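Translate sequence into structure tokens.
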Amino acid sequence: MTVLTCIAVYNKSVSVFYLLYLFWWDELLKTSFDLLKYVSKKQELNLPKSSLINIRTRFFFLMIYIVFIVVIFGFVIDWKNNDLVINNVAVLLFKNTLFNFSLVTFLCREVYLYFREENLFIGHHILSQGIITLHLSLIFGILLWFFLTQKIQLFEAYASIIALIPFLLIKLYFEVREIQHNQKKRLSLLKAK
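Result follows.
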């Protein structure tokens, strides 16, 4: 995902909206597959009610986040730049090939994880790294945009480009931590069996 994002940044075809919306879809797919696992593998869960509460809460957060992402990052921040707004609308309507390819890779990842041989149900926590990434990205995005466009007007034309870097770093950091955490969790569950 990070490689595809770097290519898009280099080609100047992404905005802060693009990244946040992509992160949002990643979390939506993870949460949807957690729900699918819950429904199909409920008997394997130690605390099925707790898992369902986690899934519902994650969906609730995602529905709130999508409003901020679309309204603020899709339109308000880039309002003065018609090209970025047009690109944001194209992404929103699934007319951006790179964005769509990224979504397909996320979907393939989740299908693979669903059908993998170990078949252990490891749901995502309410405040998983992905949800925290979205939360921090929303906060930092608004702050960076405001600071770069309102306080240092010299950088107004580059505000969206400069604001991309923290999102990539936050996402990469939390993805690496999540992979490490899941590997440890899988090993402990396999040892327990």
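Note: The chain has a mean pLDDT of 79.
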